[in-house]
Amino acid sequence: MQDADTAHKRQKADLARASSARTLGIGALSKATGVPVETIRTWERRYGYPTPERTPTGHRLYDLSTIEQLQWITRALSMGHRASQVVRLSLDEVRELVVGRDTAPPAANTNGATKADQDVLARWLAAVREMNEVKLSRGFTTECARLGSLQFAETRAAPFLQEVGRAWSDGELSVSHEHFASERLRDFLSELWRSLRVPEDAPRALLTTLPGEQHHLGLHLAAVAVSLAGMKVMFLGSSTPVEDLAAAARRERVEAVVVSVSTAMPRMVSGALLRALAAELPSTVRLVAGGSGAPRDIDGAHYPTSLSALNAWATDVVGY
């Protein structure tokens, strides 16, 4: 009883310390920056940052200034820099690395687009209405060169898909317009990640959707994030049977299986299929479930909350 009381008092002291000081726990830091908890721990172990204080009970506490630095690190990673290059840098050094490409400070978990974002999407939608392939493709190329591949995928391509879907649902675009936009973006993203030079002996990931899931543009977005981290993509496309996927993972000795799940698939169905897949995969193969429709209750699976988070996770797997 005395040991339990002592442990309880220590835990209360830890909580009091966290609330009274300008510190936050690892979970709060992850939520504030979008960097997964496991990635924060890996960076601490591998690169010596971020460095927390330790409470008597072993909990990590981080200074609030860590938020800003991790946000700048995330922006640098989204531009294609390696974690090994930027995590060890000081805040000023990371900012200098980023500022040449993007002078705006990064902000995590933002809701709503800026006027510049809205203007870009409006121009692209106008090109879709005109079915002007040259104008749309040029817009993709310009923004990708300005922002970097990962930032383009996350802050331009994904919102563009959502906007096209909204416009179609509201009757502003026809089915042919929606198909035109999707195919042009698929072509651009496919060429983008396939053109990246990844060593043949790099860790490999199978990318696919679940049986019955035909929406595959999310896979191309994921392929950009994974390829930029240095993983070799084995792109299986949409609707791969669970048993075939598990067999391919064993045969090819991949490091991970990345599954994209859209909201078009009922959560009950996708959950059952992911559990079946998790049970079939070798214990050495990581299961990653992403997309707006992915259930989050599959034991042992990893759930990146953004393309930047997926990129950071893949970078850890590669070991740079």
Observed structural traits:
alpha/beta; 320 residues; Methyltransferase, Methionine Synthase (B12-binding Domains), Chain A, domain 1; Rossmann fold; 7 strands; four-stranded parallel sheet; 3 domains; Multidrug-efflux Transporter Regulator, Chain: A, Domain 2
What this model shows, in words?
With 320 residues, the chain is an alpha/beta fold. It folds into three domains: 2-99, Multidrug-efflux Transporter Regulator, Chain: A, Domain 2 (Orthogonal Bundle), CATH 1.10.1660; 115-194, Orthogonal Bundle (Methyltransferase, Methionine Synthase (B12-binding Domains), Chain A, domain 1); 204-318, Cobalamin-binding domain (Rossmann fold, 3-Layer(aba) Sandwich). It is 58% helix and 9% strand. The chain has helices at 2-20, 26-33, 37-47, 65-78, 83-86, 91-99, 115-130, 133-147, 149-169, 175-194, 217-228, 242-252, 267-280, 307-318; strands spanning 23-24, 53-54, 60-63, 204-209, 232-237, 256-260, 286-290. Strands 5-4-6-7 form a four-stranded parallel sheet, sandwiched between helices. Strands 1-3-2 form a three-stranded antiparallel sheet, with helices on both faces. Strand 4 (204-209), helix 11 (217-228) and strand 5 (232-237) form a beta-alpha-beta unit. The longest helix has 21 residues, at 149-169. The chain is globular, with a radius of gyration of 21 Å. The model is unreliable at 13-21 and 101-111 (pLDDT under 50).
